[in-house]
UniProtKB/TrEMBL annotation:
Domain DUF7134: 31-172
Catalytic reactions on record: ATP + protein L-histidine = ADP + protein N-phospho-L-histidine
Domain called Histidine kinase/HSP90-like ATPase: residue spans: 314-403
Pfam name, any one: HATPase_c
Species assigned in the record: Streptomyces nanshensis
Residue ranges occupied by any Signal transduction histidine kinase subgroup 3 dimerisation and phosphoacceptor domain in the UniProt entry: 202-267
Keyword Magnesium on entry: no
Entry keyword annotation includes Glycoprotein: no
GO MF term (any one): ATP binding
Keywords, sorted A to Z: ATP-binding, Coiled coil, Kinase, Membrane, Nucleotide-binding, Phosphoprotein, Transferase, Transmembrane, Transmembrane helix, Two-component regulatory system
GO CC annotations, alphabetized: membrane
Lineage: Bacteria, Bacillati, Actinomycetota, Actinomycetes, Kitasatosporales
Protein name stated in the entry: histidine kinase
Regions crossing the membrane: 33-54, 60-81, 88-112, 148-169
EC number: 2.7.13.3
Amino acid sequence: MTRTEYRWLLPSAMADPELPGDRARRRRTVRDWVVDITAFLCAAFIGMVAVSVIDADESTADVVVFVDSVVGAAACCALWLRRRWPVGLAVALTAVAVVEPVAVGALLVALFSLAVHRPLKPTAIVSAAALVTVPVQPLVRPDPQTGYVASVLFGVLLVLLALSWGLGVRSRRQLVLSLRERARRAEAEAELRAERAQRLAREAIAREMHDVLAHRLTLLSVHAGALEFRPDAPTAEIARAAGVIRDSSHEALQDLREIIGVLRGPGEAGEGERPQPTLTTLDTLIEESRQAGMKVTLDQRVAAPAEAPAATGRTVYRIAQECLTNARKHAPGAEVTVTVTGGPGDGLTIEVANPAPNEPFERVPGSGQGLIGLTERATLAGGSLEHGPTPDGGFLVRARLPWPAG
């Protein structure tokens, strides 16, 4: 996933101070209609109470009551614009409420909407203006039944109540949005981890393919070359070489089938899976190499090879397999010595050494990645591997692998 594709995972509150839904929708949903109607009815109820209080005052002219009613109705109807222009509506109603008490209900609803749908800065500015006008309204339109101080305190309390309610709703929406974005981000990160694990598994399969098939294909190449350059060889040798070619081809096909089964996914590898090699199967590998015509000496000094950890034993097997393959390519005819020592707590040490070849030979091409793969395999197993030429012109590979005690 690229950096550009990852940007959408950032919380909206960080990328944009406005929440989704702050801007008016082109079409109202059912929930929007319910909320808008409820807000209109609340503002209308407060306006009707204010009109009834004004009408109860005998000193108020009927024309003033009529004008207040019309202005109050217009203020309530203007609330249908609160989603599209919450700031402008709140500013306009703040100015109207100074001279028209019946617009107070609409102003409270507008301040609530402003706090819900706009960031803190414009909300704070408009709210400060509304609080400043609260002491002015009782002076312009005093209420004979309520004192000035009580009117101011009651007005400030209503404004603060509407603002705090709106800010609480917005904070809750931001929290829900943050949790949703966090869940999406966690899901995306889980997908990235799964892709990385899959990629690492495929790389491990590729290394396994190299280690396994290189051994088989080298046998095919060596014996096919022998048949090509020695067509007059005894019948027994030709038959033995042909048998090795046949067996190696069969084993290579088996290995390819297993690898393809792993690539297909869990549970789809088929019923023909063979057990993975361990330290106990090292003798079989040595015997297979001897049957192919190699001179191999195995010095097995591990008292209980069956008790070795499966991963460590498999690593030892693969190291020996790759070293025998390399010796067959680069030192044909030379005697190879495989030494395995160690035990629980001391770890396992495998050494594969061969002297320089005595006779000239035709080199078999290689990928050059075998020793690199062995080093990586040993490192992943928690050990180390070193390799290099010996003073007599031979080659030595030594690997140390962990074997925990107990």
